[in-house]
Amino acid sequence: MINNIEQEIEIAKAKVAELEGFLKNQAKLAQLPSDYGYADLKSFIKALKRAAGGKPAKAAKVVSAKKAKRGKRTRITPEMKEAVKAAVVAGKTGSAIAKEFSISLPSVQNIKKEFGLVKARA
């Protein structure tokens, strides 16, 4: 019984020593920014990231007056309309059809209206 108590005391002493070491390291880490002349931890971390080759600081985006170039428009032929109609009848969703035929979702909707495949509003 005494041996068990002695073992528990030794385990507790080891745990206390481990925690003291942890606290000492925490105090050293907390002091690093001021040791290197930084006002706060956030600016110190930014400097560390730059020094380690991390992402550079974000530059302000320049907004161009030009519009982004659009891709070439897909010509909707009567054959394509029939294929879209067949896809609708087969139960495909509008967005899936738009992706498959490289046309816009409103174009799919217009083709559905043309063939009378759209439910009327109540």
Q: Round the mean pLDDT to the nearest integer and report it.
A: 83
Radius of gyration: 34 Å
Let me know the largest β-sheet. none
Q: Order of SSEs, N→C?
A: HHHHH
Number of helices: 5
What's the multimeric state?
single chain
Low-pLDDT windows of residues = none
- Tally the beta strands: 0
Total count of domains: 2
Q: What percent of residues adopt helix (DSSP H or I)?
A: 55-70%
Note the overall shape.
elongated
Structural class: mainly alpha
Give the termini separation. Answer: 85 Å
User: Per DSSP, what share of the residues sits in E-state strands of 2 or more residues?
Assistant: under 5%
Account of the protein in words:
There is one protein chain. The chain starts with a helix and ends in an 8-residue tail after the last helix. The chain is built from 5 helices and no strands. Helix 4 (about 95-100) crosses helix 5. It has about 120 residues and is an all-alpha fold. The chain folds into 2 domains: about 1-50, no CATH class; about 80-115.
